[in-house]
Amino acid sequence: MDENIIIILEKRGTVTATFRKLEPSKKQKIFETAREAFAFNTFENVSLDHVAAGASISKGSLIQYFAKKENLLEFVSEISIDNYRRSWEEYFAREFAVRATDRIRRYFQTQLDTWENDKTGFRFYMKMHYENDFNLTRSFTERILQLRRHYLSGMVTRGMETGEIRRDLEPETIAFILLAAIRDLESAYLAGNLSPKEKLNLSDRAMKISSMLFDGIGG
Amino acid sequence: MDENIIIILEKRGTVTATFRKLEPSKKQKIFETAREAFAFNTFENVSLDHVAAGASISKGSLIQYFAKKENLLEFVSEISIDNYRRSWEEYFAREFAVRATDRIRRYFQTQLDTWENDKTGFRFYMKMHYENDFNLTRSFTERILQLRRHYLSGMVTRGMETGEIRRDLEPETIAFILLAAIRDLESAYLAGNLSPKEKLNLSDRAMKISSMLFDGIGG
Amino acid sequence: MDENIIIILEKRGTVTATFRKLEPSKKQKIFETAREAFAFNTFENVSLDHVAAGASISKGSLIQYFAKKENLLEFVSEISIDNYRRSWEEYFAREFAVRATDRIRRYFQTQLDTWENDKTGFRFYMKMHYENDFNLTRSFTERILQLRRHYLSGMVTRGMETGEIRRDLEPETIAFILLAAIRDLESAYLAGNLSPKEKLNLSDRAMKISSMLFDGIGG
Amino acid sequence: MDENIIIILEKRGTVTATFRKLEPSKKQKIFETAREAFAFNTFENVSLDHVAAGASISKGSLIQYFAKKENLLEFVSEISIDNYRRSWEEYFAREFAVRATDRIRRYFQTQLDTWENDKTGFRFYMKMHYENDFNLTRSFTERILQLRRHYLSGMVTRGMETGEIRRDLEPETIAFILLAAIRDLESAYLAGNLSPKEKLNLSDRAMKISSMLFDGIGG
DNA sequence: AATGAATGAGATTTCATTCAT
DNA sequence: CATGAATGAAATCTCATTCAT
């Protein structure tokens, strides 16, 4: 967890100085417990009692750290965005595939694998799309989307440079359809507790879709 | 509102006979008020007091009609599915475009226009995807999805017959990517209260996307 | 059901003329359904909906017949007392045992058998002892008690006349202890859903107790 | 109020730690208010609002202490049993009468006097016999009964040893009739708000009954 | 700084009773 | 006279937030 984010959140009034001064491990535990709670329950159904117990602190402390329940969600949201951004930045720093098609395919696969290994993160991400009582959730959604578009546009632009992708289209439009594809795959993924075989199909379908996108469906 | 659905719901225990016997206009008003409430609030945040007041009935009556809050949501859900199905069946009955590409483009456009004219319906549809505490919402989501896949597969199959669409791909896979595209357009649509210009872009983008899908993005 | 009681109840305002004019079979059915309901539930937990449904009449009619829920209980109570009285009067009219001890033993046995064959009646009787929110239930209890004392005193007096029972005691005191015995046997009976073997024991115990009472427990 | 019982109840989940930590005087006040409420009303008719007001605490606190209304009754029930047991143990520790007949007579008299001085306790005891919706009440009833049988059997056995009571009968059967007698006296006692003269009669009757039991009623 | 006890607003649900048809 | 729709008072229970220790 990046301490700089905490400092910003303190300035915003989302967390208190008391919270900032906590041991990192304690902050991390609170984050994880709260994320889990918000990922699997609607906002109203998340109880501070439960979060406090899960994080082994008192309810009084929790409210002292965040003042309001909404702030707790904002905290989780901000940390989650930052984690998302950093994990993909690390990923791209180590991505040396030459061909854009390979990059895109690996991106799809990596995203699905990542969600597979962080189901709570995935649920939280999905949940935030529809807890639309707060401006907060909208901000979360849009910022994640922006990141994803940015990554995909980059890969598409590169594909155009290498000639793998048509240059007469706007990279944004292509990024859009790619994003649509990956998001719908994610939805399918969420929908079920898929069987291993279905997961294989999903991965298979990811491959089919990307080649289909490249070659077009026109007869 | 189809009275036959009401009868089925009565048999299931979702609504009571008392409700069935209500004047259609009253039933309609309850439907609309409740749909609006569920569309813009999480389940827990929908208050029966509010719905009753909105529909100009007493809370006692509301509970007499539906017994449980969950039943009210189930009622709204079932009527919504039926409305969705019927509106598209009417649409396809009047759709005489010859070329599959035209059909698909018109489908995209019509869907976006429909949501534009029924924002509450759209919000309700989106909301149901993530109120994942109830089996009910999953059933809603899956049944709508099935309808959409069915419509798109039909159009794709037709495109294959006329030679507009490659025959070496499975219709379902193609339907999938088309569905992904339309759903992401919808999401973009939801995300913002888009300015008129952005809406134009969205529609424009829909067109671009479909041609892109046909021709492929490969260089 | 004695129509004269109904007339008295009408004068008291417990039932309405509308009720009085009902077919006897309908009145009987209402009595039975209501008695069952009050026998197995606390007053508050008896729902008029349930009683109406059980008696195959509408809730509106039920309230038209009795005006208030309390009146329904009063009706059941009065009819029950009358039934109790009449059934024992018939019994004593046909009781020709010569010896008082036989009479008393037969009385014990008959009472237990009667409850056995009319469990609802028994439950209602017991229930009325402790639904002490109403003067009504007290009146019920006392009137039944009075009847029982009367019957027992009669048997005891006869025993004194025949010399089977000591004449130096007041019949009421002896009746009292006999009543205590039979009532405690009844309690034991209620307490359990007794196994057949336990029931045998109970009957056996009744015999032991009565002989013990006759011979005394003194060493 | 014995703190050990509170600890046991906390383990069972009947009361919370918060309640346990309350000042004894506050716990006592809650006990008394709740006992009074349950003694004079059916379970459903006891309102938490009323109990909270009577104990000078907020409804929120009451529910925080007991979580459910049933738990409140269970608490009252357990404390009552414990009080009953302890008061009789103290009594028997100080009971030096030599003759069993004296012991039994004093037992009768003391019980009636005790109820006289604790009418609420008596009403609660009676009420529990017929609130038969809960296993709880049955457990209460049976445990009190067991205590009473135990005390009486002890006295009877002693009477057999001293030769005051016939040895050819089972102590349990004799205890049973004694219990029946005392219980019916109690009932008579409850039934009325007896006049002083009637109370005297009752006490007098208790004496008569016990001698009658010793000598038998046989002529 | 940490705790957790106290509070009370607000939610759903039940159901006797009223009353129009 | 029978019906049952409409009502609203009352009940339990949840839980964020306040605040004293």
Low-confidence stretches of chain A: none
Measured between the Cα atoms of the first and last residue of chain A, the distance is 51 Å
Number of DSSP-assigned strands of chain A: 0
The total number of structural domains of chain A is 2
Assigned CATH superfamily of the largest domain in chain A:
Tetracycline Repressor, domain 2
The proportion of strand residues of chain A reads under 5%
Q: How many H/I helical runs of chain A? A: 11
CATH architecture of the largest domain in chain A: Orthogonal Bundle
Describe this structure in words.
- By secondary structure, chain A is mainly α.
- Chain A folds into two domains: 1-76, Homeodomain-like (Arc Repressor Mutant, subunit A, Orthogonal Bundle); 95-219, Tetracycline Repressor, domain 2 (Orthogonal Bundle).
- The first copy, chain A, has eleven helices and no strands.
- Chain A has helices at 3-12, 17-20, 24-40, 48-54, 59-66, 69-93, 100-117, 119-130, 135-162, 171-191, 196-215.
- The radius of gyration of chain A is 20 Å and the shape is elongated.
- The mean pLDDT of chain A is 89.
- Chains in contact: A-B, C-D.
- At the A-B interface, helix 8, helix 9, helix 10 and helix 11 of A face helix 8, helix 9, helix 10 and helix 11 of B.
Give a topology summary.
The structure is a homotetramer of 219-residue chains.
Chain A (H helix, E strand, L loop, with lengths): L2 H10 L4 H4 L3 H17 L7 H7 L4 H8 L2 H25 L6 H18 L1 H12 L4 H28 L8 H21 L4 H20 L4
Chain B binds a DNA duplex (21 and 21 nucleotides) through α5.
Which properties best describe this structure?
mainly alpha; homotetramer; 219 residues; Tetracycline Repressor, domain 2; DNA-binding
